[in-house]
Design brief:
Strand order of the largest sheet: 4-3-5-6
Oligomer: single chain
CATH superfamily of one domain: BRCT domain
Number of strands: 22
Radius of gyration: 37 Å
């Protein structure tokens, strides 16, 4: 089961088998017959479709239990593209031709059709309420909707399921808006703007849309808000590469990296695309993007990264348009479009504005004569009237969404883009368009290798140009501040000249950057013919592979004009003569604040000159500093250079340690041995941080063990730490995997299966499950809070004066789904017993199932990583046995 693991209890109880995940947390697709998931946003969805495994929502289990047999699969598909998957249709007084067309299209889009009216019928298609099916539905108070065929027609045109309310009989608002009476008669003068249109036609509210949550912009300007959730496990065992084209500041970038590490992930170096699992970039171009996309990595932008962090759940970056990297030059054809919006508000408007800009068009907030397109949710506004008067193309948002998803401009003559149902704001279906991955593959990352290499070369050269220009700007600042300084002493003595009074070019900025092979050829022709005679002035340096022309020019100045040999010799002699003065100037400039307060001149200055001469002589003899490197010692050279502290090796193992007895009452020994382990690459982390291993002497139900187990790390025997300390080297972890048969029997758990479930759950075992805890419980509620929230539960403390905190669900929700359980952790103390009836009443008032349980229920669930329940966990049964 991809999610809703608590349903597995019913599957097992009624003869089915709930398969445990594999050791790496993946689903056992080869053994499964059904996959239960309420969305298609799980990593193995495409594999399941390729294997023709049915993916059904959890409601399929509920309906199967209610009927006493397996329900059909088609009505319970979680694929949002099957817009009629929840529709069970029967037709009333519809002409035969229209009936066949409606039922055929409904079946093609995931719906079901039945000839007779049943309790499973969700929609009756009728023209009036006079048919027997309509009368029977009203008499029996069946929860089905009687709709006009216009609703199906508009849904088919749009390819989306819109709200049925304007189409509901017996008095459908859509007919009133068209000026048609319920009997089918048309009122005079009702079709124009000055007709008998109802006064409330302009009052259709702008709907809210959950599909745009976290997907309104490709580049968020703030980190995600985790709310009350303390656990973050979506990056567990994932390696993330942040591309350089993400234009965020260093502090913002540090926050993102910290969130990734907190979620269990690792940051990969920029040059290691093959080593990453997730590639985060802003533009869909460059060699790294192509390589990551071709290797089937998760390629998304910063908005997608923040979305999965906020929800602590993986989803496909192709699911929402602004979660995927944007095209750098936009979509071809959009550069000539000027677009404005109407009848969209809130996040929908922000989303469309950013989508228009990402597609490459120009967006205007107001309507102007130069606008080419008006995107509107309804055919009713001042902008719509102006668009008709000025002959501006008027379309709905599906045009821009599908153009962006298919990477090409869609024809505005398609009726799909010019349909505006009455009394409906199309903002309710915004954000439901998927990417067409075949188009992305063909246009962006499966073109010829020459294109990929060209893009990669451009990116690489861009990076090199940025580096070289940055260095060049630094050099320019120094030259502006020191006009008298012509060259560094060390470079003069090594024959390297960076600047002359006018004969030699000083830096790469003196010449334009070579941009092509032709420009490089032109520069090379400027070199003197007798290259051997000018070797002292412009010593050659070997050019490294892949080095840009900028860096080459920076180290080897180019000859400008036809300078003579005598001029070069004269300049070189002049620089040699100025070498002592230059050295004095450099030393004076580098003096500390303390030295600047002391007097200067006399014997001190003379001594410094003598020391400089000795230093120059030492360099000529080939001392270790002859390469011109800057010394780190003091100014007088008496004290030796300060040695750098040896850096610690990189962390190879992040370990959470619990139940270890070696350091009990030996704090000094613990500190020493922790430093020794860190020098070997082993770092101990807290239980709320990402880790690779959990070390314990045996299976224990400590808070640290249960919290860390929810992340699914490898569990080692704590003897591993002892042996590493004694042998002074890292040992293979495979030899120290924890095996505790007695503990497994005591806690009724198989550790390997529990770890597999934890890796599949990723900290979401108790997602959306509400757990209350008595305030006066033994050991305090905070210890249980840590365990519950580590598994994704909503944890609250329950006191005697607590008010009603459970929000009641609607009656329709209660009928369609069984009551969800809500738990209260409690002991047998009299003060806590008095809370049980009050809690049960509060749960029932909220249409939820109350379960007053002992704390062992939560501990066993966390240990086994499986939602289980039995009557012996009920507090009245559990404590009666004690």
């Amino acid at each position: 089961m991809a999610e809703d693991g608590h349903k597995s209890v019913f599957v097992t109880k009624y003869g089915g088998t709930a398969l445990d995940p594999e050791a790496n947390g993946q689903l056992q697709l080869t053994e499964a017959t059904h996959i239960v998931s309420n969305s298609i946003d799980f990593e193995q969805y495409n594999d399941a479709i390729d294997m023709m495994l049915p993916v059904v929502a959890s409601a399929w289990i509920t309906h199967s239990l209610n009927r006493g047999k397996l329900a059909q699969i088609r009505p319970f598909s979680p694929d949002p593209r099957m817009i009629f998957s929840s529709v069970n249709l029967t037709c009333a007084d519809i002409p035969q031709g229209d009936k066949e067309a409606i039922t055929g299209a409904t079946l093609a889009l995931g719906g079901m059709e039945c000839k007779d009216l049943t309790r499973l019928t969700t929609h009756i298609c009728a023209l009036t309420m006079d048919h027997e099916k309509c009368k029977e539905a009203v008499a029996k108070k069946l929860r089905c909707k009687i709709v006009l065929p216009h609703w199906f027609d508009d849904c088919f045109k749009l390819g989306k399921k819109i709200d049925e309310t304007p189409y509901l009989l017996p008095n459908p608002p859509i007919l009133r808006s068209l000026g048609v009476t319920s009997a089918g008669a048309s009122s005079k003068g009702s079709n124009g703007p000055n007709g008998d249109q109802p006064a409330d036609e302009d009052t259709v509210p702008i709907p809210e849309n959950q599909d745009l949550e976290g997907a309104t912009t490709p580049l968020p300007n703030a980190p995600p808000n985790l709310g009350y959730r303390s656990n973050l496990t979506v990056f567990q065992n994932k390696r993330v590469l942040l591309a350089q084209d993400i234009n965020i500041g260093s502090r913002f970038r540090a926050v993102v990296i910290e969130l990734i590490k907190r979620g269990g992930g690792r940051i990969v170096d920029d040059s290691s695309v093959d080593a990453c699992d997730m590639y985060i970039c802003h533009y869909r171009d460059g060699a790294d993007y192509v390589q990551a996309a071709q290797a089937r990595k998760d390629v998304g932008n910063l908005a997608w990264l923040f979305h999965i962090i906020t929800n602590n759940e993986w989803c496909s970056p192709l699911r929402r348009l602004l979660h995927y990297p944007v095209p750098r030059e936009g979509i071809p054809g959009f550069e000539n479009f000027v677009v404005t919006l109407s009848n969209y508000g809130g996040e929908a408007r922000i989303y469309l504005e950013n989508l228009v800009v990402a597609a490459g068009a120009k967006f205007t907030k107001t309507m102007r004569m130069d606008n080419t397109h008006l995107i509107t949710a309804r055919d009713n506004s001042e902008k719509c009237e102006a668009a008709r008067d000025w002959n501006i193309q008027m379309v709905n948002h599906l045009w821009i969404e599908e153009s962006y998803a298919r990477c090409e401009v869609q024809s505005v003559t398609n009726p799909r883009y010019t349909t505006f149902p009455g009394r409906t704001n199309l903002g309710e279906i915004i954000g439901q368009t998927f990417f067409d991955e075949s188009k992305l593959r063909a246009l962006y990352y499966m073109r010829g290798s020459d294109d990929n290499q060209e893009g990669g070369a451009n990116d690489t050269s861009t990076g090199r140009k940025a580096t070289s220009s940055k260095k060049g700007s630094r050099k320019s600042i120094q030259l502006d501040e020191e006009p008298e300084v012509l060259a560094d002493v060390s470079e003069v003595q090594n024959g390297h000249i960076d600047r002359d009074d006018g004969d030699l070019s000083t830096s790469s900025e003196a010449e334009p950057e070579p941009k092509s092979k032709d420009s490089k050829t032109t520069l090379s022709r400027q070199a003197p013919r007798n290259a051997t005679n000018t070797s002292m002035a412009t010593p050659s340096r070997p050019r490294k592979a892949g080095q840009s022309a900028d860096k080459e020019n920076e180290g080897t100045p180019l000859i400008v004009g036809s300078a003579s040999r005598s001029a070069k010799d004269k300049a070189l002699t002049k620089l040699h003569g100025l070498a002592p003065d230059i050295a004095l100037y450099e030393k004076e400039r580098k003096r500390s604040t303390r030295d600047l307060k002391a007097p200067w001149g006399g014997k001190r200055a003379a001594d410094l000159v003598d020391k400089e001469k000795l230093e120059a002589a030492r360099k000529k003899r080939g001392s270790p500093d002859a390469d011109g490197g800057e010394q780190t010692g003091s100014e007088d050279g008496e004290r030796p250079a300060k040695k750098n502290r040896p850096s610690l090796p990189p962390v190879q193992m992040r370990v959470v340690l619990t139940g270890y007895q070696r350091w009990v009452h030996h704090s000094s020994k613990e500190e020493t041995e922790r430093r020794k382990l860190r020098s070997l690459g082993i770092q101990f982390v807290q239980d709320n941080q990402a880790c690779d291993f959990l070390a314990a002497p045996c299976l224990v139900r400590t808070m640290k063990f249960l919290k860390t187990l929810a992340r699914g790390p490898e569990v080692l025997n704590a003897q591993f730490i002892t042996d590493v300390l004694e042998k002074g080297k890292l040992l293979p972890t495979e030899d120290y995997l924890l095996r505790d048969k007695d503990g497994e029997a005591r806690f009724n758990v198989v550790l390997s299966k529990a770890l597999a479930r934890a890796r599949a759950n990723r900290g979401r075992l108790l997602w959306h499950v509400v757990v209350y805890c008595a305030a006066d419980i033994k050991n305090g509620p905070e210890s249980y809070r840590e365990i519950a929230e580590a598994n994704g539960a909503i944890f609250k403390t329950y006191r005697a004066h607590s008010g009603t905190t459970i929000r009641p669900v609607t009656t329709s929700d209660e009928d369609s789904q069984p009551a969800e359980p809500v738990y209260l952790l409690t002991s047998a103390a009299p003060a806590e017993r008095a809370l049980w009836p009050k809690f049960e009443q509060m749960a029932r008032d909220g249409n939820m199932l109350p379960r007053v349980v002992a704390p062992d229920w939560l501990l066993d669930v966390a240990m086994r990583q499986e939602v289980l329940f039995d009557d012996h966990y009920l507090a009245e049964n559990f404590w009666s046995k004690k």
